[in-house]
Automatic annotation (TrEMBL):
The organism of origin for this protein: Mycena venus
Gene3D superfamilies per UniProt: Galactose-binding domain-like (2.60.120.260)
Protein name as it appears in the record: Transmembrane protein
Region: Disordered, residue numbers: 266-286, 386-432
Keywords: Membrane, Transmembrane, Transmembrane helix
Low complexity bias: start-end ranges: 402-422
Membrane-traversing stretches: 289-312
Recorded superkingdom: Eukaryota
Amino acid sequence: MATQIAVVDDRDPLIQYGGSWVRGGVWLEFGSTTMFSVTAGSTASFTFVGTSITVYGTVAAKNLNPQASWSFVIDGSITGTYTPPNNMTSDIHHEALWTSPASSLNNGSHELVITQSAAASDGVLYLDYILYTTTSANVSAYFIDDRDPQIKYTPAWRQFGSDLDFQHTSQATTNVGDSLSLTFEGKSIQLFGSVTSATEKASMAIDGGPATIWIPPADAKQTNNLIYSSGGLTPGNHTLVITAMNDQPVWADYFLVTPNPPGTVISSSPSSAGSPSNTAPPSHKSTPVGAIVGPIVGVLALVALVAAIFLCRRRRRQQEEYEGLLMSNDIAPAPSISGYAAAGAAGPPPVLSRGYSSSLVPFATPGEPGPSSVVVNSGILRSLHSDPDPPFATSSNPQLASTSYPVVSSSGSATSSARPNSGQELPPHYFE
């Protein structure tokens, strides 16, 4: 199997947390979730099969003293650390906090342990997601970035990059008819991207099938929107084609592919050639099919012709008798009414373009959003992480050390509600 990039969210049960961790997350983060700790010695462990791994997270611009720090250990020997700078002016997202050294891992099973080696008085380092290269199909999803060479842009789309984008890259087009195509192995696919116009429109089709028309929903965010989801597909090879339908920006940030079940065999087109045989087939004489079918068809045609002539003459004779009866009784025939020509009759219903009905609704939304459905705000976000969600209790430490955060009891029930929305917005993408 080809090497793929697998993605693991911070809330995936494959990541085992020890010590005291707190739930966080905002909409531009993967799955809109993160995890952080303010307790030194807290750990997050993850076992994987692959050849390299990278940990991504959010770093809050709090410039505390002492500053938070994480250490990374693989298989008890490969180590690394991350400490944020102390002069940050804004939060950073989708940041690669640590990557395993090149060629340091063989293609096998490994364990990564992340440790909060130095703790700050507030949340600074937030675990968002993990990417690792693997040949295993036993993963939840593959991650395909917009710059992956598997994606074909026709013609080339404009390339962008910002803190809002995953891997800090994205691509967009404003030309009608521009498209991208991605051939993948899997049983479903999703596309995520930005929305910078309430009137953008694109078509999405799988394997040349019927297209789904997408327009932004009224609650679209500036980035990390689910733009397309294929639903369940037959395990195998598929091709997704996305085409811009107007002059408003259509964005692509990243794709998630659900892999085929382990052991799935991708069947190719059956060969027309059979296995050679040393035994010649027995010869026999047979009456040609044409010699049998020809006379039968001829007889049936003759019978049909005779029947048609008989019915035609009979109908003409009946009509002549009826008209004679009318004339003999001085009864005028009724006026001929054709279609909707009679007075008071309704006209024919309007005819629309082929394939459409008189009631047209968008495929992906309950109604076409108005031009004001997406608000572009140029305000700067000071901190998205000042009010955390309830902490994440672990079996190893159900009692959380930090009392400055809402506490989750050992039963898992929160004693306070999720953090309120601050109402602050991030600066938008600028399409120039």
